[in-house]
Hints:
Blueprint: H1 2-7, E1 47-55, H2 63-70, H3 74-80, E2 95-105, E3 108-116, H4 124-131, H5 138-144, E4 157-162, H6 169-173, E5 178-183, H7 190-197, H8 201-207, E6 223-228, H9 248-276, H10 278-282, H11 287-293, E7 301-302, H12 305-311, E8 320-322, E9 325-330, E10 333-340, H13 344-351, E11 362-368, E12 371-377, H14 384-389, H15 399-419, E13 424-425, E14 434-436, E15 442-444, E16 451-452, H16 475-480, H17 485-501, H18 520-523, H19 528-532, H20 537-544, H21 565-578, H22 589-612
Helix pairs in contact: 4-5, 7-8, 11-13, 15-17, 15-22, 17-21, 20-21, 21-22
Amino acid sequence: MSNLLLITIKSNGQQMYSGNLVMSCDNSDETGPSPAFLYACNGLQPSCQAYLIFRTQPVYNTIINISKLLSVDPAQLAHINKIKNFNKKMPLNKELIIPVTCSCLGQYYQANTSFVIPTKQDTYFIIANSTFEGLTTCDSLIKNNIYKPDGLYPGYELQVPLRCACPTRDQTTAKIKYLLTYLITWKDTFEKVSKRFKVSSQDLALANGFSVVNDTGIYPFTTLIVPLSTQPLTSMTITLGQKRSFSKKSILIGTVLGSFLAIICCSLAGFLLWKSNRVKVELVLPKDIRLGIASVDQVLKIYKFEELEEATDGFSLENRLSASVYKGSLKGQMVVIKQMGANAPKEVKILQKINHFNLIGLYGVCEHDGCCYLVYEFMENGSLKEWLEDKTNQESHTWNNRIRIALDVAKGLQYLHNFANPAYVHKDINSSNILLTKDLRAKISKFGLARLTDKEQSGVLSIRCSFESKGYLAPEYLEFGCVTTETDVYAFGVVLLELITGKRAVYEPEDDDDEEDVMLSEEVMLSEEVISCMCDEKCAKDKVSCLIDPRLQARHPLGFVIDQSELALRMIKLSLGCLEPEPSRRLSMNKIVSTLMMIQRDAHNSENHDIEF
């Protein structure tokens, strides 16, 4: 450690090189940002375009699998790496350029993704340094997740912050536009890395906090920041272990023979492919959808209507979920098939550009008799609205479940607002459009009303929404038709109140004597009495008990009721922060996610403490 400090400099102009600190999991950042975690927020901008280098490995050796692992757009990933086939396996250790949106969250820059633990052998260290190839760290994984290092089990989902950074003021002045995170290998030196990426060795050293070029100070399995004046090119990447010792004559002969054989093979293969797929080519989809999936035909499958009929038993009533939605089985996999109208092309175009665990997955499309059918992943527990209304399922209605659902929705919106490329406003967030898996993981659906967040796209819209959304609409949208990311934040605040109270956000009379169908705007959302006493902790704790869903009442094994008013109060305060009438005063999704993660951690620790007691 002392030797490292001798050859590095502390400067606001560079990121500090981590050295072998990342080889342990017990570092601390209580006194300030530490390179053992991520790169510090010292850039000119809070968010920027950044790049990572990822090397293919077993399982993660196709565009599809890598895009899911790193939560990037597969079409964008394929384009920047000049790869046409999304599902074709690439050679091992082939370097790929990964474009990410890098944002400052707290004291560190990061690009966010998630990872479901596959085996019981996986640890934070293995996941950071093997699965993610040093693009995250053991310490940052521990800090960003509620699970203890000895409490990881298959099926647990981890939040993974990836190492990235934005140019500093000095770097921006020096015409540096992008920073690339590069994992050092055994034979790497400053000279080799700088030569590949066309930067000087001195600039590379300075960008990583070194005062001089010193190759003895860098170690394999650690990362360097590479400053770039232009976007990285595929010519800068290599495949590790690939032999390149061919003579010029061999290359010339091989090229000529290979080209000749390739022409013959491609001609023959093209003819056979045309003949075998003639029926597929003749399948006519609406023009907008054809254009929308033209670049991702390897991702979205084009189904025949007969396949959907067979999957749903002829669209039988037994498989009907709602007016135009059916469940079915395609090759043993449960799916949802939805007949779409005018919003189908827009939904297809959006869903084929985004990739996140907390957003519904679209498998394919079908056109028949002028109607468009979309095939989605199946969500066993239906909508959040249905789940909250189910009075029989008492055991699953716990604070931990509801906080996790809220966090899932928040992460989905955080991705849409900050990390999707392009970024979107969902515009139709409500409990009917939030779907739950069998493990009660939440995913946002229904993107037909979504719109870009670009400044040139913002402005006044005509008021357009479903009846279900009326209780979720922000004041500025109702009054002026203005749509921004704050519009989604407001709707999320209403969803939070539904999770806390167990009541509906929209008045839907089923029975004149049914007192449960009460608008939240009357009982909770705009309750001046509750809002006015938020600053008085004693008053607030006395008031929250009447707001909490009775099913959330927890009993200790010894029989007494556990006081959870403080937890509920924190959730209510968070929801009120989302429901500020003035859009500029509402919380950002980044702040909401970080707050919910802290609440989740404290609730988890509290539950364990009560059980131990």
